[in-house]
Write a structure and sequence with these properties.
Blueprint (H helix, E strand, L loop, with lengths): L11 H20 L9 E2 L1 H17 L6 E2 L1 H17 L12 H6 L9 E11 L5 H10 L1 H8 L5 E9 L11 E12 L1
Parallel strand pairs: 2-4
Antiparallel strand pairs: 1-4, 3-5, 4-5
Helix pairs in contact: 2-5, 5-6
C-alpha cells in the first residue's frame, strides 16, 4: 500500500480524550439551565391613563380624541412585551421588519383605500407615570407630531413591566410603553 493510502491511527490518549468529551459534554448540556424569557406583565391602568392624557391634551388644542382601538392595543402590547423579553428598544422588530409591517398584522390595510400608522416608544423605571411619558413625547418633535397629528384617528397603548429586563435595559427593572396610531378609510 502506498504511504499516502495508509490508515492513520490517532494516539490512544487522543481517542480517550475524545471519548471523555463525548460523554461529559452532553451531560453538562443536559443539566445546564435553559434561558427563561423575562417575566413580563401588562399594566392596563397606565395604558388607560396615557390614552386619557393624550385625548385631554388633544381636546385642549381643538383636536379630535383618539378612538381606542383593540387592534392597535394588541399590536402595542405585543411590541412592548417583545422588547421587554428580548432586550431591545426599537420600532423595527428583532428580525428587521419595519414597524408598519408589524402593525399591519393587527390593524389590517386590506379593504381600505387609505391606511396609515405611526408609533411612539418610551421606557423608564417601573414607576413611570403617564405624565412623564407625555412630557418626553411632547419634548421630542417627531413624537409630538404623532400626538397632535390630524391624520391619525385610532390609537392603542401597550405597557410591559419587567423586573429584570435583558439586553439594552441592563437587567434593570423597566417599564416599556408602545403607542400605535392609525387611520383607515374604505
Amino acid at each position: 500500500m502506498p504511504p499516502d493510502m495508509r490508515a492513520v491511527r490517532p494516539p490512544l490518549c487522543v481517542v480517550t480524550a475524545l471519548l471523555a468529551v463525548a460523554i461529559f459534554v452532553p451531560a453538562v448540556w443536559a443539566e445546564a439551565p435553559k434561558a427563561q424569557p423575562a417575566s413580563v406583565r401588562s399594566v392596563s391602568s397606565l395604558e388607560g391613563d396615557l390614552l386619557a392624557r393624550l385625548n385631554s391634551f388633544r381636546a385642549a388644542r381643538g383636536l379630535r380624541p383618539f378612538r381606542s382601538s383593540p387592534r392597535l392595543h394588541a399590536a402595542a402590547v405585543r411590541h412592548s412585551n417583545e422588547m421587554a423579553q428580548y432586550g431591545y428598544f426599537d420600532h423595527a422588530s428583532p428580525h428587521g421588519a419595519a414597524f408598519w409591517r408589524r402593525i399591519a398584522g393587527f390593524y389590517r390595510p386590506r379593504g381600505y383605500r387609505q391606511w396609515t400608522v405611526g408609533e411612539n416608544l418610551e421606557y423608564g423605571q417601573p414607576g413611570l407615570a403617564a405624565i412623564e411619558v407625555m412630557q418626553d413625547w411632547l419634548a421630542s418633535p417627531p413624537h409630538r407630531a404623532n400626538v397632535v397629528s390630524t391624520r391619525f384617528r385610532d390609537a392603542g397603548v401597550g405597557v410591559a413591566i419587567v423586573p429584570s429586563a435583558p439586553g439594552v435595559f441592563g437587567g434593570m427593572p423597566t417599564t416599556i410603553v408602545t403607542l400605535d396610531f392609525g387611520f383607515r378609510r374604505r
